[in-house]
Write a structure and sequence with these properties.
It is a single chain. By secondary structure, the chain is an all-alpha fold. It has one domain (2-108). The chain has three helices and no strands. It has helices at residues 2-30, 43-71, 76-108. It is flat, with a radius of gyration of 16 Å.
Length: 109
């Protein structure tokens, strides 16, 4: 059971780090924080926004949950629920990213 827990924690960390990096890069270039909004000016921009929301989602959820707890005094259960959702989402995106990396490395050589 120890290796399964380690693997789960590892892929969760990979997913959350990816979410943080994408969110920081978005904020660096767009000069505004990333959010769950999809501006459908064109089909291409909408697809990019959906991809951004897909992989930056855990960071967005945790940022909003922490702000809600500090500023709006939301209940602690809200923070725990948001953390659980963001954690599982990070694990899923981490598995997807690691599978893509391993698959690419296997295909290349």
């Amino acid at each position: 059971m120890g290796l399964e827990v380690f693997a789960f924690v590892y892929v969760t960390c990979v997913g959350f780090v990816c979410a943080g990096i994408l969110s920081s890069l978005y904020q660096l270039f767009a000069q505004r924080p990333v959010g769950f909004r999809v501006e459908a000016e064109s089909w291409g921009k909408a697809m990019i926004a959906i991809g951004m929301c897909t992989f930056a989602g855990p960071f967005i959820i945790m940022r909003n949950a922490l702000r809600g707890r500090r500023i709006e005094n939301r209940p602690i259960g809200w923070l725990f629920g948001s953390s659980a959702i963001a954690g599982l989402w990070s694990a899923c995106s981490g598995v997807l990213l690691l599978n893509a990396v391993v698959g690419t490395m296997t295909a290349v050589g």
